[in-house]
Amino acid sequence: MKQSFLAAKTNMNAPADADCINAKLLTQAGFIKKEMAGVYSYLPLGFRVLEKIKKIIVEEMDNVGMQQTLMPALTPLENWKKTGRDNVDIAYRPTENTVLGFSHEEIVTPLIKEIMRSYKDFPKCLYQIQTKFRNEARAKSGLLRGREFIMKDAYSFHTSEEDFKQYYDKVAEAYFRVYERCGLESYKIEASGGIMSGEEKISHEYSVVTKAGEDTMVFCKKCGFAQNIEISKKRKGDDCPNCKNSLNEEKCIEVGNIFDLGSKYSDAFGFHFTDTDGKQKPVHMGCYGIGVSRLMGTIVEASHDENGIIWPQTVAPFQLHILSLRENEKAEEITSNLEEDGFEILYDDRNESPGKKFADSDLLGIPLRVVVSKRMLEKGCVELRNRKTGETQEIPTRELQKYISTYFMPIKK
C-alpha cells in the first residue's frame, strides 16, 4: 500500500488528554482516534493489527475444540433478571427492557440449553469475538480500560467438575500460546473469581509486567509462579514456594482471565442434562476471556521506545516499510516484486524529507525498514533496518527477497 493513499496521518505531538503510552503512541501514529472517554475508532492501521491478533486467538481457540459463534450485543433484560445481574452498575441499559452485554453467560446458557440435553452432547465450548460495553466510572489508560471494547469470550459446558478441570487446563495452556505469539511474556495469576461467578471460586488472570498496570503481582522469573498481591501472602524478596528463587514484585496489566462458573448460570436457566443413569444433573460451566483491544494496547505498553511503537512481527500492520528517498521508480519496482512474493508492505512514496520519513517509520513501528536511496543504489544495495534491535545492514538488491524471508513467511493470498 502506498503511504500517500493511507487513511492515516502521523503527529509528533501527543494528545493533551493522553494519559498513558498506548493512548499517546497509537493516536500519534494514526492507529486509533478517540471519540470520547473510553471509546475509540480503529483506523486502517489499527484495524490491521486487531485482525492479526484475532487470527492468533481464533487459531488457538479452534485448536482446543472451541466453536466460534456470534451472539447479539443488545440483550433482553429478562435473562439478566434470572441471574440477578440486571442492576449491576457497569451495565448499560439503552431501553427499559434491554442490556448491552458486558459478558454473555445470560445469552449463551439458554442458547446452548436448546442443543445439549443428553450426556452424549457434552462437552462443548462456544466462543465469540465481539464488541462489549461496560459503564466504567473512570475510563482511562487508552485501550486498557474502555467503555466500548473488543473481547473474546468463551463458555464451556461439562457433565462434571473433573471434565471441566481437564478442559480448563487445556485452555490455560492455549492462553500462554496466544500471548507468546503476540510477543508478550505472560504470567498466570491466582485471583478471586467472585466478580464473574458470584461465588468465592479460585480463578486465574493472565498478566504482563508493565509500569502502566493497575494491578500488582508477585512472581518468579525462574519457574513462572505468580499471584495477585491482593490475595498473596508473599512479597518481594520472599522465597518462591515452588523453586525457592527470590520473588519479584511489579505492576502488571491483566490481558485475560479464566473462571470456574460452577452451576450458577445453568441452575438459573434450568439447564440440566440426562446422565447415563437416566437422572437429571446440573451442568458445570467455565468462562474464558481475552480483551482483544486491551491486548493491542498492552503490546504497545510492553514494546516501545522513545521514538515510537515496536510491533512484534506477528501482529504488525505491515511486515516491511519501504522508504523512497527520491528514488520512486526503483522503490516501486522493489515494492511490486515483494508484494508479488506475498509480503505485506507499506511503501512511503510521499514527498517528504528523509528526516520526516525516518521519524514516521520509527513511530509506526513496522518491523523492517527498507531505505531506497541514490547512494545505496549506486552500490547495488538497499539499507535494511530492524526496528526492534536498531541493527542496520546494506543488502544487495537482488538478495533482498531471500534476506527478508529469514524474518517473515510470505502472507498466503
- Helix residue percentage: 25-40%
- Compute the average pLDDT: 94
Largest sheet: 9 strands, mixed
Second CATH tier, the architecture of the largest domain: 2-Layer Sandwich
Overall shape: elongated
Question: What is the first-to-last residue Cα distance?
Answer: 15 Å
CATH topology of the largest domain: BirA Bifunctional Protein, domain 2
Describe the secondary structure blueprint for this structure:
Elements: H1 21-28, E1 32-36, E2 39-42, H2 44-63, E3 67-68, E4 74-76, H3 77-83, E5 98-100, H4 105-113, E6 124-133, E7 148-158, H5 161-181, E8 186-192, H6 194-197, E9 202-209, E10 215-219, E11 226-228, E12 248-262, H7 264-268, E13 272-274, E14 280-282, E15 284-291, H8 292-302, E16 304-305, E17 308-309, E18 320-324, H9 328-340, E19 345-348, H10 354-364, E20 368-372, H11 374-377, E21 381-386, E22 392-396, H12 400-404
Parallel strand pairs: 3-6, 18-19, 18-20
Antiparallel strand pairs: 1-2, 4-5, 6-7, 7-15, 8-9, 9-12, 10-11, 10-12, 12-15, 13-14, 16-17, 20-21, 21-22
Key structural traits:
413 residues, alpha+beta, BirA Bifunctional Protein, domain 2, Rossmann fold, five-stranded mixed β-sheet, 12 helices, 22 strands, elongated
Detailed description of the structure:
By secondary structure, the protein is α+β, with helices and mostly antiparallel strands. It has two domains: 21-305, Bira Bifunctional Protein, Domain 2 (BirA Bifunctional Protein, domain 2), CATH 3.30.930; 318-404, Anticodon-binding domain (Rossmann fold), CATH 3.40.50.800. Helices cover 29% and strands 29% of the residues. It is built from twelve helices and 22 strands. It has helices at residues 21-28, 44-63, 77-83, 105-113, 161-181, 194-197, 264-268, 292-302, 328-340, 354-364, 374-377, 400-404, and strands at residues 32-36, 39-42, 67-68, 74-76, 98-100, 124-133, 148-158, 186-192, 202-209, 215-219, 226-228, 248-262, 272-274, 280-282, 284-291, 304-305, 308-309, 320-324, 345-348, 368-372, 381-386, 392-396. The strands form six sheets. Strands 3, 6, 7, 8, 9, 10, 11, 12 and 15 form a nine-stranded mixed beta sheet that branches. A five-stranded mixed beta sheet has the order 19-18-20-21-22, sandwiched between helices. It has a two-stranded antiparallel sheet with strand order 1-2. Strand 1 (32-36) and strand 2 form a beta hairpin. It is elongated and about 80 Å long. The two termini are 15 Å apart.
